[in-house]
Write a structure and sequence with these properties.
The complex is a heterodimer of chains A (652) and B (101). The longest helix of chain A has 35 residues. Chain A is mainly α. Chain A has three domains: 38 residues; 565 residues, Up-down Bundle (Cytochrome C Oxidase, Chain A), CATH 1.20.210; 44 residues. Chain A is built from 21 helices and two strands. Chain B is mostly helical and 101 residues long. Helices cover 73% and strands 0% of the residues of chain B. In chain B, helix 1 runs antiparallel to helix 2. The mean pLDDT of chain B is 83. Classes of the chains: A mainly alpha (652), B mainly alpha (101). The interface between A and B is medium-sized, with 22 and 18 residues. Chain A: Belongs to the heme-copper respiratory oxidase family. Chain A: Keywords: Copper, Electron transport, Heme, Iron, Membrane, Metal-binding, Respiratory chain, Transmembrane, Transmembrane helix, Transport. Chain A: It comes from Fictibacillus fluitans. Chain A: This is Cbb3-type cytochrome c oxidase subunit I. Chain A: It holds the Pfam family COX1.
Chain lengths: 652, 101
């Protein structure tokens, strides 16, 4: 290997060499598989160029599960090191890199795409639409996320991972503190996928406001749809702040400016201020859709209309706006003064009120309901106590004077994993189990799912409860070693055991999916849970055009009402004749344009100006090419609709 | 997918583009050339930014059009609240910060 290659590829760590080998083997395996089974054309036509929201959702889902695996491995490596602090399992530099990538990947490349997967799979079906408002833009969003994530993940074998923490505070993340390409990978990976996130926010906002089935008023929308609407509003206002902040950091690093440097008139605290202006709304962006999922599940499996629908809607809208006014609680210790801290302590505590309202509504919905203990319901039930404790410790942290004690300690780590795992991950998993039959046409196996559920849940408490104690004992975050005399070792050992239990839970889930593909209970009705909303009125998996007839909505819980009063899709033989359906055409441009972004990002990461300009030129050419495309839609003929519907067992 | 509304002409788009270019270059030039003192410069940049915002609203986002202008009004009010929060909030927080000289 030449000198140049030595600087380019990450060398010297056996863990990384192992990763290199497995990456090469996996890539070769995929290439051989696609070539041997002649699947290249299929891959291009059915997946890479698709603008179908259901397929885009599935691609989001697969990517996010892969990222969950990577972020999870990062977590386990950290826990191993902390269980054996003096063995030098990880060097300090390696540890820094791993906690940085763990945080960034879990929030931006796991939680966000998992959420977008559920947006894509559910929203058009739930509001009775045939696609999103901008299908081309939707494909664009996915591929931008995909290539952004790819760029970020590449850093650990090429160039070196970022190591300045998941929010990369300057001056450490400036050129003087982080001279290598790692920090540039961070900036460009997030920037490229961030454009996609913003576009998705706009896309689904417009979809929900403009594409609802005839008759569906705003106050008749399912609560998941409401939660997505509120999340999208927050995305639209929060993500531009992130983009601008990281762009300014890039200007500092690339052009030698002094916006956030510690010298030359720069102000690093302005970065902290700006990044949390995105960072705090971000946690509400990911948790609001989870609240929506719980609402759907609680109502379906209690066989009751949701309790307090209007208060649910209002509390979500309040959270989405109020979530924008709490960001300083992440840096009370900056010393902004008593007035500032008091204001933000109060707003932070205030946001607990609408959240509490929602918890009571879920409980009252279950009260005297006929509850069936399905997998989605189990995760929902596990969420309530978990999130309650997470919320309570959150109010503790919100008390600004007390925060001076908790700040930067493991107490904080425990708190926010409790809200993000107990709130967000449990919610998305509940949603995954709930809508899985709609995506793939079969249910996930119950027995293995219960094993996964219990290992996940027990593992969660075993992992994070000791961390509250560790925080009180003075253990700060981001330490890779500590002396045996600190008394932290037993708690860390227990915590690590819990982390591995959660890892086993994940393995159970992978097994569960693989097992259920072959043996899972097939869903032939399209309505396996006796659901209440429109997505259950069509076959599973949904046909390409979703609804052969657009549903006419007359009340909330539209499908439940149709079933009870015998109209619409509940009495298919009374349906009118089919009409041709207007659909968007597939396009390769989203894939190609995002690939060009990837090239540009890679070039700018290594400061290879030529490559960067070439990539950006490619982006420009793709934009031009798209703007001259006229032939972008087509009609599905009636015969094809008839054939599809009868093959799905629906009466013509 | 079939739109019968007026989305502006090539002329208004080019005009808007030119205005935007000028209003982007102007503050950069003001800063580089040290034309004014710091306080005046800050006010000038803020004013140019607001002007840019208005140009974008009318030339590119067609703010006065559409069959349901109440969505526009709601979005604009919320946007104004958010922008006020970002700008005024940052100034408030950062001037309180004892680290700032």
């Amino acid at each position: 290997m030449g000198e140049k290659a030595k600087g380019f590829f990450v060398t010297g760590d056996p863990l990384i060499y192992g990763a290199d080998v497995s990456i090469i083997i996996t890539l070769l395996g995929i290439l051989v598989f696609l070539t041997y089974f002649k699947k290249w054309g299929w891959l291009w036509r059915e997946w890479l160029t698709t603008v179908d929201h259901k397929k885009i959702g599935i691609m989001y889902l697969v990517s996010s599960l892969l990222m969950l695996f990577r972020g999870g491995v990062d977590a386990l490596l950290m826990r191993m090191q902390l269980a054996m602090p003096n063995t030098h399992f990880l060097q300090s530099q390696h540890y820094n890199e791993i906690f940085t990538t763990h945080g960034t990947i879990m929030i931006l490349f796991m939680a966000m795409p998992f959420m977008f997967a559920l947006f894509n799979i559910v929203i058009p079906l739930q509001i009775g639409a045939r696609d999103v408002a901008y299908p081309f833009l939707n494909a664009m969003s996915f591929w931008l996320f995909f290539f952004g994530a790819l760029l970020f993940n590449l850093s650990f074998v090429i160039g070196g991972s970022p190591d300045a923490g998941w929010l990369s505070y300057p001056p450490l993340s400036e050129l003087a503190g982080s001279p290598g390409p790692g920090q540039n990978f961070y900036i460009w990976g997030i920037q490229i996928s961030g454009i996609g996130s913003l576009a998705t926010g706009i896309n689904f906002l417009v979809t929900i406001l403009k594409m609802r089935a005839p008759g569906m008023k705003l106050m008749q929308m399912p609560l998941f749809t409401w939660s997505v609407l509120s999340s999208c509003i927050t995305i639209i206002f929060a993500f531009p702040v992130l983009t601008v902040t990281l762009a300014l950091l890039f200007v500092d690093r690339f052009f030698g400016a002094h916006i956030f440097t510690a010298t030359g008139g720069g102000n690093p605290m302005m970065y902290v201020n700006l990044i949390w202006m995105w960072g705090h709304p971000e946690v509400y962006i990911v948790v609001l859709p989870a609240f929506g999922i719980y609402s759907e599940i609680v109502s379906t499996f209690s066989k009751k209309k949701i309790f307090g629908y209007k208060s649910m809607v209002f509390s979500m809208m309040i959270i989405s706006v109020l979530g924008y006014f709490t960001w300083v609680h992440h840096f009370f210790t900056m010393g902004a003064g008593a007035d500032v801290n008091t204001f933000f302590a109060i707003t932070t505590m205030a946001i607990g009120i609408p959240t509490g309202v929602k918890i009571f509504n879920w409980l009252f919905t279950m009260f005297r309901g006929r509850i069936s203990m399905t997998q989605p319901m189990l995760w929902t039930l596990a969420f309530i106590p978990c999130f309650l404790v997470g919320g309570a410790t959150g109010v503790m942290l919100a008390a600004a004077p007390a925060d001076y004690q908790y700040h930067n300690s493991y107490f904080l780590i425990a708190h926010f994993h409790q809200t993000l795992i107990g709130g967000v991950v449990f919610g998305y998993l509940a949603g995954l189990y709930y809508w899985w039959p709609k995506m793939f046409g079969f249910k996930l196996n119950d027995r293995i799912g219960k094993w996964a559920f219990w290992t996940w849940n027990i593992g969660f408490y075993v992992c994070f409860m000791p961390q509250y104690a560790l925080g009180f004992m003075g253990m700060t975050r981001r330490v890779y070693t500590y002396g045996w005399d600190m008394g932290w070792a037993p708690y860390n050992m227990v915590s690590t055991a819990g982390a591995f239990l959660m890892g086993i839970g994940f393995v159970f889930q992978v097994w569960q999916i693989l097992y259920s593909i072959k043996h899972g209970e097939r869903d032939l009705t399209g309505d396996p849970w006796n659901g209440r909303t429109l997505e259950w009125s069509i076959p599973s998996p949904a046909p390409h055009y979703n609804f052969a007839h657009l549903p006419e909505v007359k009340s909330d819980d539209a499908w439940w009402d149709m079933k009870n009063h015998r109209y619409g899709a509940a009495v298919p033989n009374k349906m009118k004749e089919y009409a041709p359906i207007h659909m968007p055409k597939n396009s390769g441009i989203p894939f190609l344009m995002s690939a060009c972004w990837f090239v540009a990002g890679f070039g700018l990461t290594f400061e290879w100006i030529g490559v960067g300009i070439a990539g950006l030129a490619g982006v420009g050419i793709c934009l031009l090419a798209r703007s001259f495309q006229r032939n972008t839609d087509y009609y599905i003929p009636v015969d094809e609709i008839k054939a599809t519907e009868s093959s799905l067992g629906r009466v013509v | 997918m079939h739109s019968h509304e007026n989305h502006g002409s090539a002329k208004t788009y080019i005009l808007g583009f030119l205005f935007s270019l000028i209003l982007t270059a102007l503050p950069l030039w003001l800063v580089i050339q040290h034309v004014m003192n710091k306080a005046l410069l800050t006010v000038a940049i803020l004013l140019i930014a607001v002007l840019q915002l208005i140009i974008q609203f009318f030339f590119f986002m067609h703010i006065g059009e559409g069959e349901k202008p109440r969505y526009h009004v709601m979005a604009l009010i919320l946007g104004a609240v958010m922008v006020f929060t970002i700008v005024a909030g940052s100034i408030w927080i950062m001037t309180f910060n004892s680290q700032v000289h």
